[in-house]
Amino acid sequence: MAKIIDIICVFLNRGIPSLYNSMKVYTIKKGDHSPFRLPAFTTSDVCEFEVMFDNSAIYTTKDPVNQYDINKLFGLSDGLNHDYNSARFGWNYIPDTADHQIKIYSYCYINGERIYKKLWNLELNIWYRLTIELNKDTYDFFIDGELFNIEMTNGSRKGGNLKYKLFPYFGGDEVAPHDIKIYFK
């Protein structure tokens, strides 16, 4: 069976990973903001994953205004306070769109100021390689190799060498309206 999956993956160059044992599924349970996860400290300035959303990422918030809130996918703190300096990919789903695509954003804190920008639309059930690089004067975001960067508003980074990885978080005001699964490898 694994050989059939590998052949299909080679043919489609997307979809279920050929090394499916290395895949991690983050499930944000109904009524929660995030799955429990211990901090993963790092000194690396790069964070990269292949990510896939399935139909569970389609949601409607109780308050229509909150539909535009940006959920967090993954990223890096830039120092020990991610609400002061960090770079993350964010996402949301806007039900008015006929394409059922996930909107992807850069979502940063630079010296305590939140900055976000829409980058891309992702289709459901397709793997995308997402990369964040923390550089001297920019936070660089890559989606399948295409670069988007966020310039520092006051010059260069001040975060420090010790960082921690940031993982899925749903909402701002509201919690997940149903179980949401996000696939990482």
Instruction: Give the % helix.
Output: under 10%
Shape category? globular
User: CATH topology, what is it called?
Assistant: Jelly Rolls
Number of helices: 1
The CATH architecture is: Sandwich
What proportion strand?
A: 35-45%
According to CATH, what is the class?
Answer: Mainly Beta
Return the domain count.
Answer: 1
N-to-C SSE string, H for helix and E for strand? HEEEEEEEEEEEE
Give the integer mean of the pLDDT values.
86
Number of strands: 12
Question: In terms of per-residue confidence, which ranges show pLDDT below 50 for 5 or more consecutive residues?
Answer: 1-20
Largest sheet: 6 strands, antiparallel
Distance between the termini: 20 Å
What's the quaternary structure here?
single chain
Give the helix/strand class. Answer: mainly beta
Strand order of the largest sheet: 1-12-3-8-9-10
List strands and helices in order, with pairings.
Elements lengths: L1 H11 L11 E5 L11 E3 L3 E8 L17 E7 L8 E8 L8 E9 L2 E10 L5 E7 L3 E6 L2 E6 L11 E4 L13 E5 L1
Antiparallel strand pairs: 1-12, 2-11, 3-8, 3-12, 4-5, 4-11, 5-6, 6-7, 8-9, 9-10
Can you characterise this structure?
With 185 residues, this protein is mainly beta. The protein has one helix at residues 2-12; strands at 24-28, 40-42, 46-53, 71-77, 86-93, 102-110, 113-122, 128-134, 138-143, 146-151, 163-166, 180-184. The strands form two sheets. The protein has a six-stranded antiparallel sheet with strand order 1-12-3-8-9-10, with no helix packed on it. The longest helix has 11 residues, at 2-12. It is globular and about 40 Å long. The model is unreliable at 1-20 (pLDDT under 50).
